[in-house]
């Protein structure tokens, strides 16, 4: 299983493999950790180096205190990471952001129409894939210029779903 950990805007790919152990950015590490019974302290042995850390789970990230320095760590599995990237970045073609399907699936809902003004992060499409509903969001503010799908449609990976003009509408 692969995970992406983001610390101070730096991304690390962590892979847990039964045969090769734990890989961080494809480099193997010998890791053993134990959560101690008091104070929320975790004892970590990494490549024969002992590290004590206080680890607390928050709503959308982990806070890790090591040697007096506090780190905010976001951890996502590979699927969630790809979806979040799709939600926050779009392919731009001639001033238009194209939101494409990150995976094959079925369109559940399209709560926008051509001409709608959308904000960054606004829900554009709900895609069902692997029995899970995934919300695809606007990668930028703008005006919806194309809606290529409707509810019930089957889509393939990288298929364009919605186009958004990145130019701001003129005020009347």
How would you describe what is shown here?
By secondary structure, the protein is mainly beta. It is built from one helix and 18 strands. The protein has one helix spanning 78-88; strands spanning 2-7, 10-17, 21-24, 27-29, 31-35, 41-46, 49-57, 62-66, 69-77, 91-93, 96-100, 105-109, 117-118, 123-129, 132-137, 142-147, 154-155, 160-165. The strands form three sheets. Strands 4-3-2-1-9-8-7-6-5 form a nine-stranded antiparallel beta sheet. A hairpin with a 5-residue loop joins strand 5 and strand 6 (41-46). The longest helix has 11 residues, at 78-88. The chain is elongated. The termini are far apart. 15% of the residues are buried. The model has no long low-confidence stretch (mean pLDDT 85).
Write the layout of secondary structure elements.
Blueprint: E1 2-7, E2 10-17, E3 21-24, E4 27-29, E5 31-35, E6 41-46, E7 49-57, E8 62-66, E9 69-77, H1 78-88, E10 91-93, E11 96-100, E12 105-109, E13 117-118, E14 123-129, E15 132-137, E16 142-147, E17 154-155, E18 160-165
Antiparallel strand pairs: 1-2, 1-9, 2-3, 3-4, 5-6, 6-7, 7-8, 8-9, 10-11, 11-18, 12-14, 12-17, 13-16, 14-15, 16-18
């Amino acid at each position: 299983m692969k995970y992406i950990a983001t610390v101070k805007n730096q991304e690390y790919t962590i892979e847990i493999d039964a045969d090769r152990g734990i890989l961080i950015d494809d480099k193997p590490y010998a890791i053993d950790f134990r959560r101690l019974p008091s104070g929320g302290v975790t004892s970590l042995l990494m490549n024969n180096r002992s590290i004590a850390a206080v680890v607390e789970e928050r709503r959308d990230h982990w806070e890790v205190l090591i040697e007096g320095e506090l780190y905010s760590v976001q951890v996502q599995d590979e699927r969630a990471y790809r979806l979040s990237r799709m939600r926050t970045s779009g392919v731009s073609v001639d001033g238009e952001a194209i939101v494409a399907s990150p995976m094959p699936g079925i369109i559940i809902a399209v709560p926008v129409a051509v001409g709608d003004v959308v904000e960054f992060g606004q829900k554009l499409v709900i895609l069902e894939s692997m029995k899970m509903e995934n919300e695809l969001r606007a990668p930028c503010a703008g005006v919806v210029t194309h809606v290529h799908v409707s509810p019930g449609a089957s889509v393939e990976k990288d298929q364009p779903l919605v186009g958004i003009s990145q130019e701001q509408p003129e005020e009347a």
